[in-house]
Design goal:
Blueprint: H1 2-23, H2 25-36, E1 42-43, E2 45-50, E3 66-68, E4 73-77, E5 85-89, E6 92-94, H3 100-112, E7 120-126, H4 133-137, H5 146-161, E8 168-180, E9 183-186, E10 198-199, E11 205-206, E12 213-215, H6 218-231, E13 234-235, E14 243-244, E15 247-258, E16 264-274, H7 281-284, H8 288-313, H9 324-328, E17 337-345, H10 352-365, E18 369-370, E19 376-378, H11 390-393, H12 396-402, H13 420-424, H14 428-433, H15 437-452, H16 465-510, H17 537-545, E20 551-556, E21 560-563, E22 572-575, E23 578-583, H18 585-601, H19 604-608, H20 615-628, H21 645-664
Parallel strand pairs: 2-6, 2-17, 7-16, 7-17
Antiparallel strand pairs: 1-18, 3-4, 4-5, 8-9, 8-12, 8-15, 10-11, 13-14, 15-16, 16-19, 20-23, 21-22
Helix pairs in contact: 1-2, 1-16, 3-5, 18-21
The protein binds adenosine-5'-triphosphate.
Adenosine-5'-triphosphate binds next to α4 and β14.
Length: about 675
């Protein structure tokens, strides 16, 4: 009878679960759609620019140490073997004859459009000191670089996109800072001290207190930028008369505000970064302050290298916080930006080692994956700063009443329609805009969902108010129903448990003789091992029968073990038989070889089939292999960051026999 009851309850629970999932299907679909909207990956793009020989500098008469092969690849002599060259392939290679326009049009201009989609973008100039970073980013009045060209185009784009009558109003602001000796200094306000870098809850990097100047024209930009550039710390070194002693970061923000409901806002950030060059102080001849500056520059570039390596190897901790530069670049490298790195290199022979190191860094950076997404939210005061005609917002009767002195202009800091009396006369659209942001956010996602379903789904926000309300009500009712069913499910589960307890009690009463006294011991249930290594039974049997078997199973007189019981006051000592395996060295060697093959050829997924290798370790092994080449012996595992000698030994023990035996028995 009790078994019947329990089956019945289980059936009820199953039915309820089915019901819950059926009722919740609409919501699940919503959240799944949200989840599947994970931003698509965008690899950091890398371009290399080789500067021409500069007149009057040492080594200008020597042949160049780098040679371009085509528009994407180059080669450089291999210092380990003079018969060979090292070949590199990038997204673009610009030779010594390339112009400023080539670099801008080929590598920078294409990413600017993302700013108008509310996404972030960044351009970084990297390379040894004197290799042409500032020339690439800033250029000269005759040969303007990336910065003036990008600003010119961006301002033009925003003017067109934000023109009257277009759906979005656009505004552009600029900030300019330098990181000098690990201090963040505002170049637009020379009186400011070291600024702090913070991260908001959405992972955006912010610098509170950093000056932001609105710019509407290129003349505006130059008015702020040129004097600020003079504030940047430069100094003469043996390799560059005007060497940048700091990392300079120009931040351009494009804000967009939707003119009509649902009054979204978007923000796209563009970082244009001229990094200070890595310096070999034996060659720069730096002393005193220059040496100190150089130390800070090299240290932050070293952390930059570590960040790139950590991202490539999928390490759990990326050391962004180890320098101000990497902290600032957090959303550009491995973050949310469309990023391009321009590695500048020099042709002179004395730059050879710096060039190889810059090329290696560039090659590693090419593997970094970003996930740019649109920074979109609702305007906090939807009727505030955007220039909206009241006619656009109000229905005909309200429009008449509202036209008048309260109409606001663009750029007004104060939100409008805040007074209680005004809110009493709100039109449906105004009510929508004054709605609880969470509710509005939800409406928006519903709206997007319906829009994504094609023609059958009319956008929610443009459906009449009554239908909208009905839809919202349905969602709320479904929510309530789900909650109710969940409660019911819990109740039923509790009943099933109570029933089980009752059943087992009954059993105890009926057959008391079968029961053994329980061991008085707290047992911790160990997490089951991912895949138990089981010696194939067939093999053991074969080996037991064959005198030449490679595995011998020996029965030893056992060790003594203390066993506690409820009956005995003291734990009893019991001898247990234990089994020992003797394995032939040949079989062990096979096992080792098989592990080695897997380490060298297996994918991260294959590696996870090994004992003691989880997803993180598998990733680390693949990363190590890509960086250092194949493992020559299993013990090399110890050299992988995060794997200790002890872990390597236990890994070996756990896998060797299973793999060796697997080999003898044919494919598993
Ligand atoms: N593509 C180029 N064409 C002509 N001249 C160039 C080019 N690139 C760099 N130069 C010249 O080389 C010199 C060094 O360049 P630049 O100052 O841009 O180097 P840098 O990498 O910014 O150095 P640092 O890191 O020390 O600031 C400058 O005189 C610059 O005008």
């Amino acid at each position: 009878l009790s078994a019947d009851k329990s089956t019945e309850s289980k059936r009820k629970v199953t039915c309820l679960l089915k019901l819950v999932s059926a009722v919740g299907a609409g919501r699940c679909r919503l959240s799944k759609i949200g989840a599947s909207r994970r931003p698509p990956p965008a690899r950091v793009r890398v371009a290399v620019r080789l500067r021409p020989f500069v007149d009057g500098t040492a080594g200008a008469s020597d042949p160049p140490c780098v040679r371009g092969m085509d528009s994407c690849s180059l080669e450089i002599a291999n210092w380990r073997n003079h018969q060979e060259t090292l070949k590199y392939q990038f997204d673009a290679f610009y030779g010594e004859r390339s112009t400023q326009q080539d670099i801008y049009a080929g590598s920078v201009q294409p990413i600017l459009r993302h700013l108008l989609e509310g996404q972030n973008a960044s351009v970084l100039a990297y390379g040894p000191t004197g290799a042409g970073k500032t020339h690439t980013m800033l250029g000269s009045p005759e040969q303007p670089g990336v910065i003036p060209r990008a600003l010119m185009d961006l301002l033009q784009l925003t003017r067109e996109e934000g023109a009257e009558g277009r759906p979005w109003a656009l505004s552009v602001t600029m900030s300019y800072l330098e990181i000098y000796q690990e201090k963040v200094l505002d170049l637009l306000d020379s009186t400011s001290g070291d600024l702090v870098i913070r991260e908001d809850c959405r992972g955006n990097i912010l610098i509170p207190g950093l000056t932001q100047k609105p710019i509407t024209s290129f003349a505006d930009f130059e008015r702020h930028f040129l004097p600020a550039s003079r504030n940047r710390t430069v100094g003469a070194t043996r390799l560059n008369q005007r060497s940048s002693r700091s990392h300079a970061v120009l931040l351009v923000k494009v804000d967009q505000r939707e003119r009509l409901a649902p009054f979204r806002q978007r923000e796209g950030k563009l970082y244009l970064i001229d990094l200070a060059g890595s310096e070999d102080n034996r060659r720069t001849g730096n002393k005193g302050l220059r040496l100190k500056e150089s130390g800070a520059i090299n240290a932050s570039l070293f952390v930059l290298g570590k960040v790139v390596d950590a991202l490539n190897q999928g390490l759990p901790r990326v050391p962004y916080r180890d320098s101000k530069l990497t902290r600032l670049l957090q959303d550009s490298l491995g973050g949310s930006a469309h990023s391009i790195l321009i590695a500048n290199i020099a042709p002179e022979r004395h730059f050879y080692l710096d060039t190889v190191s810059a090329l290696n860094f560039a090659a590693r950076t090419k593997e970094v994956i970003n996930r740019p997404f649109t920074n979109e939210s609702l305007q906090p005061h939807v009727l505030g700063p955007v220039k909206l005609s009241q006619k656009e917002l109000l229905g005909p009767p309200e429009a008449k009443k509202a036209r008048g002195p309260e109409e606001e202009e663009i750029g007004s800091a104060e939100p409008m329609a805040a007074s209680a009396s005004a809110s009493q006369k709100l039109s449906p659209l105004q009510k929508l805009s004054s709605m609880d942001p969470a509710m509005l956010e939800r409406l928006l996602s519903l709206d997007r969902l319906l829009a994504s379903q094609g023609s059958q789904g009319a956008p929610l926000l443009s459906t009449p108010k009554r239908e909208r309300m009905v839809l919202m009500k349905t969602v709320e009712e479904k929510d309530l129903e789900i909650e109710r069913l969940k409660m019911k499910q819990k109740e039923l589960e509790a009943k099933v448990l109570a029933q089980k307890a009752e059943d087992s009690k009954e059993k105890e009463n009926h057959c008391p003789t079968i029961l053994r006294p329980l061991l008085h011991r707290t047992v911790t249930v160990a997490k089951p091992l991912k895949k138990a290594v089981v010696m194939p039974l067939q093999l053991i049997q074969e080996q037991a029968a064959s005198p030449n078997a490679e595995i011998h199973i020996l029965k030893n007189k056992g060790r003594k073990r203390k066993v506690e019981s409820l009956d005995a006051p003291e734990p009893e000592e019991k001898a247990e038989d234990c089994w020992e395996l003797q394995i032939s060295p040949e079989l062990l060697a096979h096992g080792r070889q098989k592990i080695l093959d897997l380490l060298n050829e297996g994918s991260a997924r294959d590696l996870r089939s090994l004992q003691r290798i989880g997803p993180k370790k598998a990733q680390l092994i693949v990363g190590w292999r890509e960086l250092h080449g194949p493992f020559s012996q299993v013990e090399d595992l110890e050299r992988v960051e995060g794997i200790t000698g002890k872990q390597m030994e236990s890994f070996l023990k756990a896998n060797i026999l299973g793999l060796a035996a697997g080999q003898r028995c044919g494919p598993s």
